[in-house]
Amino acid sequence: MEQNKKMGVGGFLKSQALLMVGIIIFIIFGLLQHSFFTTANIVNIFRQIAVIAIMGAGMTYAIIGGNFDLSVGSLLSLCGSVVIVTTNQVGQVGSVLITILVGCLSGVLCGYLCGYLHLNSMVATLGMMNVLQALTLMYTKGQFVSLDNSDLPIVGLGQGNVGIVPISVIIMAIFCVVFAIILKRTVFGHHVKAVGTNPETCRYSGINDNRIVMLTFVISGFSTAVAAILLAMRGAGAQPTMGLGYEFDVITAVILGGADLNGGEGSIYRTFVGALIIGIMKTGFVILGMSVYYQYVAECVIILLAVYMDIRASRKGVKK
Amino acid sequence: MADEYLLEMKDIVKTFPGVKALDGAGIKVRAGEVVALCGENGAGKSTLMKCLYGSYHADSGEIYFKGEKVNFKNPDEAKAAGVILIFQELSLITDLTVAENMFLGSQPKKGRSIDWKKMNADADKVLQDLNSTVKSTDYVRDLPISQQQMVEIARGIALGAKILILDEPTSSLTEREKNALFDIIRKLKKQGVGIIYISHKMDEIFDICDEAVVLRDGKLTGQFRIKDIVLDDLIQAMIGRHMDNYFTKCTAEPGREVLRVEGLTAHGYFRDITFSVREKEVVGFYGLVGAGRSEIMEAIFGVRHLDAGKIFIDGKEVKISSSVEAVKHGIGFVTENRKEQGLLLPKSCRENISLAKLPQIKKGLFVDDSKTNEIYDKYHDAMQISSPSSEQPIVYLSGGNQQKVVIGKWLAMDPKILILDEPTRGIDIGAKSEIHNMIAHLAEQGLAVIVISSEMPEIMGVSNRIYTMAQGRITGELGETEISEENLMRNIVITDSTQKA
User: B257-500: what CATH class?
Assistant: First the structure.
């Protein structure tokens, strides 16, 4: 009982504070431009953030496990191209399976480098980022790839609606809920937090910390593959560089969500709210007709603020 | 003039929100004397020293230094006046040289640049005065811990220390290094430096100190001349009660053999290790730090690579290539580095104590919170863990309570074999004796227990049988009747002397 009460006051308020920030930004944009408050725009914001939120859910695991995955942007490009090309070659079901396999394999490789060989995740995934982008360009010969038949049901994943709700938003919702439950309730989820807090203690407690770290990367790769399918189907085609810069948005969402950059803590729900704030800002700048450059600056300011808050919060805790 | 004190702290009171940390504490130090500052964890030793050092400011009370009333506003002022505090965790910059560390922030200048020649020469002079083999141009990262500590002390001397405060200085030193440190302390005494020596180790206090100040619950219990007092009196002053059974030994008749290892070898760490442990038995491993004791246990627990050797559990040969398998075979391992390897510091007591057990108590796919609460409640009561709640982050508990949580984590696994590496390091004397009782009790209930300790009284007090080690080899096995200080001492230096001969 006592535990619930604590969650009610402390943890709950904290996550709501972030949501408040989102709502305030939303209202500011709305006052500047009234079309911002329309249902169509709100639906559009959610459609926009589906990709970031899904990838963010995966990235949350990697960051809680104590690592960054910088390869997700390039992997998004690769998987986007793969799903388009293989749909043309082997059909819809096969292409989805192959794409998810590609995402997971990339995760296995990153995970092996960071989890078993203990390479610094920044360096290892930075390398993977270049390798994956190069692979994408080789695979597509640098060309835009598109579906031969854009009437296939799979295109609905990117373009379809149920009522006014886009299918991609429904998938995002299911995805985030399932990943949140895995993180919060399962033994694996607890182990990810424990390994991110102190891998050595876990090893000395009979937990295979290397395997846990590897699995966090597999989850990140898997999420990216799912996001790539939605993004590619939205345009029924894929640029070989379509994932460029996505790693920044995704990591920003996780950090805004208050995940501990040293690992150990974080929440899928808060990452989702982080993604929502990014979506509101991106859409807002577009609607106001402001330059995309301002958007980069604004995003940068927000991420610096979030990191600063993270440092302050961790200083309050354990003295180091 | 004999009663002229170099330092006198009187009636110090310091209140933190909700806690009266110091309530009339004090200490008196004469020049050229070593005063031990004793007390259980939380008695206020560190707080008192921080009040002196300017890190904290006392609410009331008086501090006299060299006959004058002082009140240092910050550690820099204290240092400038000659009060030097050397923390348990060393604060050297490992990528700089010894001389750079010693004169950090006060380097001798030639014009605008550092006068390297003078700095190195000054540093070497101080080091030579301390009979140290360390050179001013050595990099700190290349020095063993003991010599790094020497550099810390040398830095204090270079700054002109009048009062030197050493906080648990021997916690990571070997016996030989400890003796070297004591030589330095004796030398400093002759130079008229007053030394405050904070330690839990009673033998050291009786070895090196002239007086002992005892704090209990923030109050000054008394200041005694060491030569007028015996161990039991000092302990009684610290805990406020007599400890009749300082050590309890397992008295059960040992049963069948649970663990046997043959010819274990890991190149560079240990070789040809053969021993066995039976149920209802506490087996001690005694040796100097670096003798390879912890490394053997790590290998048995599957976290260190083995080059050769066999492990048998319940008579059957087993291969243990990871800690996951070790746990499956019923082995529990309380490591010597509680904070680095035993605990998830920011996480709650409940999460820490149920960490290893999680895979066994899931309900379907999910963690069963009611089970983790049950585990916490059970061991909270059984081991008298004092924590305000199950959700208290473990980092805020005392060392003794943290250690109980680590032991509880393993007991929850219902192990056959429990390995405890330095189980009472950095733990106050009350909790120490509770843990000793617990070890005996667990063995009597049927557990096979292995204890590693560098403290001779502890290893003699808890073990039914002791293996001695030196330089990676087992040098002897002492049965219950053969355990004596002389035998232990002889066995752990055995390889040393044979090599010299």
Answer: alpha beta
Angstrom distance (rounded) from CA B138 to CA B158: 17
A92 touches chain B (CB under 8 A): no
Q: Tell me which range, B19-23, B278-282, B484-488, is most confidently predicted by mean pLDDT.
A: B278-282
Q: What is the pLDDT of residues A147-170, one digit of tens each?
A: 999 899 999 999 999 999 999 999
Q: Taking the domains of chain B in order of start, what are their residue ranges?
A: 7-239, 257-500
Q: What structural domains and CATH numbers belong to chain A?
A: 36-312 (1.10.3470)
CB burial of residue A238 (10 Å; 0-12, 13-18, 19+): buried
**Nearest residue on chain B to A186, alpha-carbon basis:** B366
- Among the partner residues A197, A206, A208, nearest to B347 by beta-carbon distance: A197
DSSP string, B412-445: TT--SEEEEESTTTT--HHHHHHHHHHHHHHHHT
Interchain contact, A186 vs B391, CB within 8 Å = no
- The model carries a pTM of 0.77
Amino acid at residue number A166 = P
Q: Do B301 and A204 touch (CB under 8 A)?
A: yes
Reading the block at residue B308, the tokens are 């050769």
Closest to B303 (Cβ–Cβ): which among A186, A203, A318? Answer: A203
* A206/B356 CB distance under 8 A: yes
| Dihedral sign computed on CA atoms, order B32, B38, B42, B43 | negative
Minimal Cβ distance to A205: which of B355, B389, B390: B355
Whole-complex ipTM = 0.85
Classify B7-239 by CATH class. Answer: alpha beta
Cα separation of B21 and B219, whole Å?
9
Tell whether A4 is within 8 A of chain B (Cβ). Answer: no
